[in-house]
Automatic annotation (TrEMBL), chains A, B:
A Pfam entry, by short name: LacI
Single GO molecular function: DNA binding
PROSITE patterns tied to this protein: HTH_LACI_1, HTH_LACI_2
Top-rank taxon: Bacteria
CDD domains hit by this protein: HTH_LacI, PBP1_LacI_sugar_binding-like
Protein's name in the database: LacI family DNA-binding transcriptional regulator
Domain HTH lacI-type positions: 5-59
Keyword entries, A-Z: DNA-binding, Transcription, Transcription regulation
Length: 360, 360
DNA sequence: TTGTAAGCGTTATCAC
DNA sequence: GTGATAACGCTTACAA
């Protein structure tokens, strides 16, 4: 392990003062070409990299942003973090990742406290900004200590949150139109000719669940009835789709179609149905939300809603950088969920059948 | 944005010297209970967090480790990074994540240069250690500039790599027995009664591909013939499984079974087969490697090899910490790939059929 | 037990 | 153009 070479030694080796080296490092014009050449050579020869730590002491900038998420294993988050890392790096920022793993089937007995602890580390580390992708803030009822800690954090360093705004939180929220996506998929199923439609997945007490479920119910209420036994909440994971669907299978007769809260849940549902020798979409149709990359390759290919989460992630970084640089924020951009019709909804199948019977 | 409070102001407010505050911060015993109490109160009141940056200047430690990977979207990597983040955080380390996105269908024309650039950032940021999960180092022929830069990096800060050792690289490697996994799955298919077995997926020129393919061929050669037309390399993603399988479908007759280089590729293959109304395992069996979490819920459930990548990730952190603290390394731990028999291989199906025909 | 002062590696502010 | 020197926030001898 070679000891790190410093600007002082470079200066000595080049026969100049540290200030001159510093000037060369920062591309200041007020250095003679001759000295600049000498210094550059020494820097190159010794492969000198100035210490960001020392620089940070002076500038009060670390060129680092922190990202908080609850499950790095979840494609919903990785799609976003991929964009954040990429765009951040383009702008000269590195990414400190904190993965609380409090989502889903977690073993933490106090997720709020876990996140608060992360906030402390973030302050210590003196990042320039923070992006929160999910966690405690997504709850209908947010822990008060958590909220206080979050506001305190936002007081020290700009915090951008991708999620539904909380009136008691001073952070900047990048909003997603959850209701619209749920309306789109529900309407699509109705328009495809299904009348009895169920809803599965989503953790109760989480805003995304409530909002999608509410939108589902509202949309349904215009055209048809929804019984509570056709709604099975659980969580956002594949095993939750499996368990919700399995429970629903005890209902007779089954709904014609199902709205799954996301593609993972949809996939779990397909698995549960297959175990009972039920086919999708022939025996029951499935539409879902949050287009995950694999959904296009499933059997059947999943009809779903693309929420364009990567776009939101990019906007989050942009706004955060504005906050960091005290620039004006971009005006709020519209967020358009998009329906992707594939196979699991059976729409095309039905259409073909209709055409066929029309011809007869 | 409140300006950050410093140790100096805490000292003034508490009516003591900065050293006393520092002592309290560092739990030094040589502070009177009285002063300690006063200082603690002020710290608490003002919610003071000492600056890691300033501390790092002195200690030359940032309590940060960097992780390099090529695709955060890939479950192969997220399983590992989840462990690294968790275990690292338990030990007081934060994680700087660099995602080069050079894997798979990348748009980078020079992945080696991309990684070299990341190395520079890592040195600047003065992390305490580095873990590399994949990238240029996985190639059969590693770029020489890259290798030089990597060795230089390892000269400044300890680097641990999860992957196959490279004799020209001075970093510490955590090795995985790729060959053994491939042997296990191949033998399993052979033992299940398949004779003509194909191999799909994996990027040519990548060690993991070569090693698994070689092990596959060797194992096969003991019991049966393998024709080159039954081998279709491509890459590690779902669309690669689809394309490889689609290509292979032009071969008549088809192999009885397929070894996929990982579960994603296997999933793509199932999709390609379904498009031709071919069933797995009835028409063709599939065995794969690298148990991804979803594989258990696919239709059919995927027979695969669990390489226990999370365990390797944990070992990598442990060894890295030893390196950081100049402690003795743990002795090399054995790594045991494990066969998970599910549905896609058709082993159970065949067994039942055999039993049935035995009874007749 | 406590305080003073030097020092960590850089940049910024002065003189020269 | 260039070079001393102070400053950033903290820790750590060394003194008292």
């Amino acid at each position: 392990m070679e000891p790190k070479i410093t600007i002082k030694e470079i200066a000595k080796l080049a026969g100049v003062s540290v200030s001159t080296v510093s000037r060369v490092l920062n591309e200041s014009p007020s250095v003679s070409d001759k000295k600049r050449a000498i210094v550059k050579k020494v820097i190159d020869d010794y492969n000198f990299q100035p210490s960001m730590v020392a620089r940070s002491m002076i500038s009060n900038k670390t060129h680092t942003i922190a990202v908080l998420l609850t499950d790095i294993t979840n494609p919903y988050f990785t799609a976003q973090i991929e964009q954040i890392e990429r765009y951040g790096r383009e702008q000269g920022y590195s990414l400190l990742m904190f993965n609380t793993m409090t989502a889903g089937h977690s073993n933490s007995d106090n997720p709020a406290a876990d996140e608060i602890k992360v906030f402390e580390t973030i302050i210590e580390k003196q990042v320039d900004g923070v992006i929160i992708l999910g966690g405690e803030i997504d709850r209908e009822k947010v822990d008060q200590d958590y909220l206080k800690a979050l506001n305190q954090l936002n007081d020290q360093v700009p915090v951008v949150i991708i999620g539904q705004p909380n009136p008691d939180c001073s952070c900047l929220f990048i909003e997603r139109d959850e209701a619209m996506g749920a309306r789109l998929i529900t309407t699509h199923l109705l328009a495809s000719g299904y009348h009895r439609i169920g809803f599965i997945g989503g953790e109760p007490g989480i805003k995304i669940t409530t909002q999608r479920l509410t939108a589902f119910k509202q949309t349904m209420s215009i055209y048809a009835e929804v019984s509570n036994s056709d709604i099975e909440l659980s969580d956002f994971y594949i095993q939750d789709g499996y368990s919700s669907m399995t429970t629903m299978l005890k209902t007779k007769p089954l709904p014609d179609a199902i709205v799954a809260i996301n593609d993972r849940v949809g996939q779990g549902a397909i698995r549960a149905l297959a175990d009972q020798h039920l086919r999708v979409p022939e025996d029951i149709a499935i539409g879902s939300c949050d287009a995950f990359p694999d959904a296009e390759w499933m059997v059947p290919r999943m009809t779903t809603i693309n929420q364009h989460n990567e776009v939101l992630a990019r906007i989050a970084v942009q706004q955060l950088l504005h906050l960091i640089n005290n620039e004006q924020l971009d005006s709020v951009q519209t967020h358009l969920p998009e329906l992707i019709i594939r196979e699991s909804c059976g729409a095309k199948l039905r259409h073909q059948q209709t055409e066929k019977s029309d011809n007869t």
